[in-house]
């Protein structure tokens, strides 16, 4: 990991000193490092960036919860019922294909400039992968397990809860991992498009001011948060799908 | 083919002749291509909950410990509370099956035979009135198998349960059953129906009686006739 | 005193571009009028108009072309206060480039930003007047903001960039000195200003009055060089990041102030010249952006408050 | 499906006539239908919209191919090697969390305003789900199958190709489905951000002109294309993962 | 425990005593907690390709037809072309196993016993010099089982292959093996080693000889002693 990092920074530095790319587009690693320190310092000393960070974290948190709940419910609808698969799924796909950007004004019109409209956009972006993952998971149960539940006289609901859902957990988590990353991107996009005093706005300001090193620094902080969310999901998967080998290690 | 209430029937036949399929049809899991299945006077159209079925594969769920797997039918029928109450019963069944101490182990730590035994316990825990068993003892050693056979007989007699067993062991079929159905190879038809008129309860030492031997021979001959080569 | 909350939307998060708002807040001018301003930023004029139309915001700062467009679509939005009487856009070329006039750009590609549709109309109007038409004589490439514009210059895919005054100041400050080759006569194609829905104006004339008065006071305060430090403080409070580099903030503010000087000081701050509106309108009709001329252009703006605003207490 | 459609349009119409939402935010269904006809007519008669449509289709097509290839390769790297899982995955997650918008200038600087930069952005967005899906698929093989391949003396490569990959197909397709939808969103976002003479630009222009009905109509055409791509993937899954019950039907 | 080249050994013991684990250790799939495995003078540290192994589960791959599943070891060892060339051989093995006509069927259409037979064919197709078999015939009827046993003996003798079989059937162990290892229940240890000195080739009618009966009894007694209840 460290090796990759060094190689990566090396290439970056080489590109920089070659002068091929203007610093407005690609700042030097040193400038970026300096800005990282600056932002870190600002955050640690309770500077003006702390508020935006907190705002974005809140958005991401709420959106993730909502997207999980919504994606899971819709995923069950789509994966479990013919109605869902035939009648609902095409709409979900169609809606997800649409440029989310086009919906931002609608969200603002209905939900205002507060956190709600950003949460809505982020939820919107992160929900689809969870739907697809959950639905795929519901198809993963094998014939024998299905038949066993039938002979036990299980209701459809019981079959779902006690067999299909646990069996489909690995698929659900695949969706959740993708969604967890989407939620961050969604929150920032939401902030770009309207209102919201979060990190996205800081990036936007830095970007309009062509302060690219700052943009990079802010983005790196966001990435770390995104990584933390992703790792939480990975951890949750290890914890809840303990019966499946979820790591490469110990494999060879 | 008629199963009397409280009777014990076995099906024996070469591999691939359709025994598992027959069982699935009887359980209402697969629609029959011809004919119909009646249970207690009513036709079986879908699965029914007083049927206990065991498949050729153990089909334990990896996210439940052994004991949780076993009380699953209770949980499904009567809810979580009843399932918790059934833990003692499940533990007794585990003891009987020689799985003492494996209550809280996850199924991927069981050996093949142990998984099969756990599946039998799961089937028995809800005390179904009809038992459909697909080669339940195929992965067990002879001793355990004999013991499990006797337990099965005891349980069926106690509850007046109707049992239907698929097996490849002729002695097993004879010692357990009132009727043995011999199936001919593909396409599977019932070639002969052998009534076993040994007295109940059966004991293991009946195996050495000449009458037992004669029955075994008769069935073997029947199967040899339809031999697949 | 009961405070009335007014949500203000700007097309970008910059506090400097909305300086009267932030200085007015900082100096308490709005509070004196009983108004509590809640500043918000969206992305571009269309989003502002949508926010106004949905009632989520009361006052916004859209460009004139989108306001005409909205009225053409039956959404009654009125321009109230012209804050950039001199064009906020310019046809920018790198300092060292040999272009001096728009007709030098014949046969080239011109980058246009994405912040506003208005700049496209602006540039097209100018190039049209030089007898050039798309796609025969030039080509527009939407390049997004300044960063992508520099990428376009580096790759030599664009020869000029139609950007805002802020873009010019920022690019210059970041080591990409830009030159504005817009001919003087096009300075009448004014830039973004303050607007509200006709409905809101009708229902709350006293708020509009108070709001405008506070802005005029803030403008005067800002334009007094003696107050520069305090002004920069107020702006930094509104957008700390923008105000971090004071020298940069000051340069940007200078550019904004320069374009904000009225053509005719006697009409007062915020005055809108009907001729300039007509020019915008005609340009839009000529370029096809507007399908049909508006029957009555005067519904698009109003000068009825200008006098009251400029009568200071 | 038709029912949903009618209910949906009904609610839309009701919202519209209630006058709660301005037509520049939510146009009436009739206006939208009119615009749909207009756009359709324009496309069928070879009008000016055909070029942009073709451009966007090309972008989507190339990006989908690229994202599948890239996502698959990286997914194998991440799912199969400890190096990939430990050292590469965190970078991939971090990069994917970053607002893609921030990369637009870099892509344009390197690839220009042509189709390449849009393809790059769309690929970028669609790759991550495919990586996660592929990697998850590689963990899906069970213990017995792994051991069997070991006793057969299979090389790591053979184990991968002949066992782990086929076993992981359902997961791979989950990723592909999510990616297929992302690629469309990515192409449009790319067109929004700079250059590009595709459908995204038509939407942009309509949006700046506050011609919301036109925006909706254009978006609906995009959705149909997105739906077609998604359905192609679903079809491919049915075809290639024939041994898994991939539909709800015939299940109860 | 030493396996002579060309010898046939069996392991018998109660369910869960560690037979499958022993087999996996011998195949080099699981590291032993103590002791070591030597094959042809070299210690087994990882899996080796001249070992043919059959697990308790058939583990056929659902995306390959039966014949493609069977030629898989060839494909892995010698590539696609060799695999195509081995189709005839695979078809001969299928015929032998009574699976004629099932070449192009996918595994989910096979019955339990048929899948097991297909797995045996897969193991045999690459002619490994060491065979490790985990209850290969447990889901087969007696007749098929006897026949498969004789085939297995023939194949091993023909190729001078070393075989190691886990089974629960004492007669099966006796008729096939040179040595039978009896394992005690958990924790599994080798309790007794019974040498079977019946002449080769063995035939099915040896089952009725008194010597055979004596050996079976001896092993049964041994297992009864360590009985699990
Ligand atoms: N993955 C595992 N993790 C931990 N313990 C295991 C695991 N697999 C098996 N065991 C334990 O190891 C012991 C031996 O298992 P093994 O599968 O070797 O039994 P076996 O002799 O083959 O039994 P059977 O005849 O039932 O197949 C059992 O007690 C079982 O609980
Ligand atoms: N899913 C399926 N689709 C098509 N054919 C099937 C399917 N499952 C089983 N068959 C066929 O039906 C026949 C009977 O299968 P069944 O599983 O009932 O056999 P069985 O008597 O239980 O054999 P065994 O003793 O080997 O378990 C077989 O010839 C098999 O090929
Ligand atoms: Mg069967
Ligand atoms: Mg075993």
Give Rg of chain B in angstroms. Answer: 18 Å
Oligomer kind: heteropentamer
**Termini of chain C, distance in Å?**
18 Å
- Total of helices of chain B: 8
How far the N terminus sits from the C terminus of chain B, by CA atoms, comes to: 28 Å
Helix content of chain C: 40-55%
Mean pLDDT of chain C: 87
Number of strands of chain C: 10
Compute the CA-based radius of gyration of chain C: 19 Å
Topology of chain C as a string of helices (H) and strands (E):
EHHEHEHEEEHEHEHEEHHHHHHH
Number of strands of chain B: 8
Q: Greatest contact pair?
A: A-D, 78 and 77 residues
What percentage of amino acids of chain C are in beta strands? 15-25%
Morphology call of chain B: globular
What binds here, in terms of ligands, is: adenosine-5'-triphosphate, magnesium ion
| Beta content of chain B | 15-25%
The low-confidence parts of chain C are none
The DSSP helix count of chain C reads: 14
> Structural class given helices, strands, pairing of chain C?
alpha/beta
Question: Could you please describe the fold and organization of this structure?
Answer:
The complex is a heteropentamer, with 2 copies of chain A (252 residues), 2 copies of chain B (229 residues) and 1 copy of chain C (313 residues). Chain A is mainly α. Chain A has a single domain, classed as MetI-like (MetI-like fold). Helix content of chain A is 79%, strand content 0%. Chain A is elongated, with a radius of gyration of 22 Å. In chain B, 47% of the residues are buried. Chain B is α/β, with parallel strands linked by helices and 229 residues long. In chain B, the strands form 2 sheets. In chain B, strands 4-5-6-1-7-8 form a 6-stranded mixed β-sheet, with helices on both faces. In chain B, strands 2-3 form a two-stranded antiparallel sheet. With 313 residues, chain C is an alpha/beta fold. In chain C, helix 5 crosses helix 13. In chain C, strand 6, helix 5 and strand 7 form a beta-alpha-beta unit. The longest helix of chain C has 19 residues. Helices cover 43% and strands 16% of the residues of chain C. Chains in contact: A-B, A-C, A-D, B-E, C-D, D-E. The interface between A and D is large, with 78 and 77 residues. The structure holds adenosine-5'-triphosphate (2 copies) and magnesium ion (2 copies). The site of one magnesium ion (MG) has 4 residues of chain B, from helix 1.
């Amino acid at each position: 990991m460290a090796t990759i990092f060094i190689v990566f920074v090396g290439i970056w530095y080489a590109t920089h000193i070659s002068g091929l790319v203007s610093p407005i587009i690609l700042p030097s690693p040193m400038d970026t490092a300096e800005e990282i320190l600056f932002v870190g310092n600002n955050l640690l000393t309770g500077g003006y960036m702390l508020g935006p960070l907190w705002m974005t974290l809140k958005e991401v948190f709420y959106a993730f919860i909502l997207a999980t709940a919504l994606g899971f419910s819709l995923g069950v609808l789509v994966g479990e019922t013919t109605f869902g698969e035939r009648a609902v799924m095409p709409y979900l796909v169609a809606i997800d294909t649409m440029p989310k950007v086009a919906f931002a004004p609608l969200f603002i019109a209905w939900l205002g400039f507060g956190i709600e409209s950003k949460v809505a956009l982020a939820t919107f972006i992160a929900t689809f992968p969870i739907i697809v993952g959950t639905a795929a998971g519901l198809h993963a149960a094998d014939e024998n397990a299905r038949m066993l539940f039938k002979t036990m006289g299980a209701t459809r609901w019981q079959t779902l809860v006690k067999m299909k859902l646990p069996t489909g957990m690995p698929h659900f988590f695949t969706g959740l991992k993708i969604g967890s990353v989407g939620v961050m991107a969604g929150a920032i996009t939401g902030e770009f498009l309207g209102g919201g005093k979060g990190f996205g706005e800081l990036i936007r300001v830095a970007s309009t001011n062509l302060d690219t090193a700052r943009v990079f620094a802010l983005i790196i902080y966001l990435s770390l948060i995104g990584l933390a969310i992703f790792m939480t999901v990975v951890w949750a998967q290890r914890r809840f799908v303990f019966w499946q080998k979820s790591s490469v290690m110990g494999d060879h | 083919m008629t199963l009397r209430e409280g009777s014990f029937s076995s099906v024996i036949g070469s591999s691939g002749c359709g025994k598992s399929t027959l069982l699935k049809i009887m359980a209402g899991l697969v629609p029959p291509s011809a004919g119909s299945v009646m249970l207690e006077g009513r036709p079986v159209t879908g699965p029914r909950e007083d049927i206990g079925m065991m498949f050729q594969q153990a089909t334990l769920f990896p996210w439940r410990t052994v004991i949780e797997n076993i009380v699953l039918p209770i949980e499904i029928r009567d809810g979580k509370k009843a399932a918790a109450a059934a833990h003692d019963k499940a533990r007794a069944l585990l003891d009987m099956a020689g799985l003492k101490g494996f209550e809280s182990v996850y199924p991927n730590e069981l050996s093949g035979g142990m998984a099969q035994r756990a599946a039998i316990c799961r089937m028995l825990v809800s005390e179904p009135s009809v038992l459909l068993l697909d080669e339940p003892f195929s992965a067990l050693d002879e001793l355990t198998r004999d013991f499990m056979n006797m337990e099965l007989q005891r349980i069926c007699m106690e509850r007046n349960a109707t049992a239907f067993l698929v097996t490849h062991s002729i002695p097993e079929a004879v010692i357990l059953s009132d009727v043995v159905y011999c199936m001919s190879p593909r396409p599977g038809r019932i070639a002969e129906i052998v009534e076993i008129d040994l007295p109940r309860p059966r004991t293991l030492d009946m195996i050495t009686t000449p009458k037992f031997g004669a029955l075994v021979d008769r069935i073997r001959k029947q199967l040899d006739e339809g031999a697949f080569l | 005193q009961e405070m009335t909350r007014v949500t203000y939307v700007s097309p970008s998060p910059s506090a400097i571009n909305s300086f009267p708002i932030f200085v007015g807040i900082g100096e308490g001018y709005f509070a004196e009028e009983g108004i509590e301003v809640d500043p918000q930023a969206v992305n571009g004029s269309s989003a502002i108009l949508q926010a106004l139309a949905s009632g989520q915001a009361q006052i916004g700062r859209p460009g004139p072309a989108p306001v005409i467009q909205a009225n053409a679509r039956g959404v009654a939005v009125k321009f109230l206060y012209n804050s950039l009487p001199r064009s906020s856009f310019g046809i920018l070329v790198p300092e060292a480039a040999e272009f001096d006039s728009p007709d030098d750009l014949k046969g080239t590609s011109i980058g246009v930003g994405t912040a506003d549709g208005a700049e496209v109309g602006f540039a097209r109007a100018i190039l049209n007047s030089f007898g050039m038409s798309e796609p025969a004589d030039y080509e527009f490439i939407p390049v997004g903001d300044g960063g992508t514009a520099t990428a376009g210059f580096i790759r030599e895919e664009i020869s000029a960039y139609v950007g805002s005054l802020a873009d010019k100041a920022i690019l210059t400050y970041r080591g990409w000195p830009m030159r504005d080759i817009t001919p003087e006569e096009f300075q009448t194609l004014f830039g973004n200003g303050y607007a509200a829905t006709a409905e809101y104006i009708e229902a709350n004339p006293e708020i509009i009055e108070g709001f405008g008065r506070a802005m005029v006071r803030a403008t005067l305060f800002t334009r007094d060089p003696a107050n520069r430090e305090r002004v920069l403080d107020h702006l930094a409070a509104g957008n700390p990041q923008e105000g971090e580099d004071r020298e940069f903030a000051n340069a940007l503010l200078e550019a904004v102030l320069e374009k904000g000087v009225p053509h005719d000081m006697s009409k007062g701050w915020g005055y809108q010249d009907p001729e300039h509106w007509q020019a915008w309108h005609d340009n839009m009709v000529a370029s096809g952006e507007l399908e049909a001329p508006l029957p009555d252009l005067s519904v698009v703006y109003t000068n009825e408050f200008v006098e009251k605003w400029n009568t200071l207490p």
